[in-house]
Amino acid sequence: xxxxxxxxxxxxxxxxxxxxxxxxxxxxxxxxxxxxxxxxxxxxxxxxxxxxxxxxxxxxxxxxxxxxxxxxx
Length: 73
What we know:
Elements: E1 10-16, E2 21-26, E3 30-33, H1 41-44, H2 55-63, H3 67-72
Parallel strand pairs: 1-3
Antiparallel strand pairs: 1-2
C-alpha cells in the first residue's frame, strides 16, 4: 500500500444524546449519535406506546374503506 494516503486511525470518543459515552476506533476524533444501546428501546426493553391498530386498518379508517361496505356491495 502507498504510504501517507490513508487517514489516521485513532481512538474516538462517542457521545450519545442520553449522555452515555464510550470509545471506538475511527478516522474522526469525536462522534455524536442519537441513540445507543443504553437508551434504544430495543435494547432496554422499554417499548413506547404502540398503536393497537395495524397500518392497514389505520389507512382504511382514514380513507373511509370499511369491510361492511364491500360485503354489502
